[in-house]
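Lay summary. Proteins are chains of building blocks that fold into shapes, and those shapes determine what they do. In this project we predict the shape from the chain. Here is one chain we studied, written as its sequence of building blocks.
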Amino acid sequence: MSSVTSAILGEPAIAQATTSIHVAPEGNTIEVGATNTAAVSAFLQAHFGSNAHIAVEFQEPDTSAASRYAGNGPVVAGSALVGENENVCTAGYGSRAAAGQARGQTQYKYFVLTAGHCFPLNMAVGHETGKFEGGIAIGTVRRNAYIGLILPTDGEGIFLMNENLRSHSVLNGDPLEAQPIQGVQVPHNRETVCWSGIYGGNQCGKISWHGESLISGRVEATFMVKGLSIKGDSGGPVWDPETHKAVGLMTAVSSEDGGKCWKTSYNSVACTRMKFTPLLASGGSHGIIPELGVEVLGQD
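And here is the predicted shape, written in a compact code that computers can read:
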């Protein structure tokens, strides 16, 4: 195998077309993955002969583990957003809204959801490329259920400038990976939920209660969960770990219900209690989905 590897690495064009080199489990064949099987096969036959125990098969190239910070690709729930106001929040679920018909087919506009308090209406938003770095533009806030209401719903929709930026997944696991969402459901007290934020990371905890909260001077209907969250996680996805269905978006950090808060090394606030706004009408909230007129993208 080392001879095959050395030969491939010695030819840049072939190395670029090669995705993997390993010995088959049976131990008698070297298996080579390639994006251009014809070119790699011809190269290896020229070097080792047509009778060599080398098998070349098509294979997509490997990619690095998922990241909350990216300069391109889909905006997965749990990744970092930054607005023109330099406010940083977490991306929520990908979603869509019907936008008429064309040739008998429904056309859609695509959005990424986040907390309504993150960015004002019509503000341009970017996908942050690194922690405390700038962002690459993904779209503009076109729907916001947080403004002009006595009892606001803390959700907004960022219209994606390119539909290829849409995603039906959340960042979860260790290492991080994009895991598809399987639908949407209503949260209930005493259920366990999980969430994914840019600073607090992946956490799980039990819903203790729901009710009205006074957050930044505004009354909101939220669910309270026992578990870590950090300011900047706002807008991040909350889901049921058993069904892997979406239930809400993170809204606030809290010290209520026996929780504690402290200042982080990067001057943010971390708390051992998290509040979220439900996607569907429940717990006194009108629900983010009905208020914004969107549907969450799932694996189906």
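What the prediction tells us: Helices lie at 2-9, 12-17, 37-48, 288-292.
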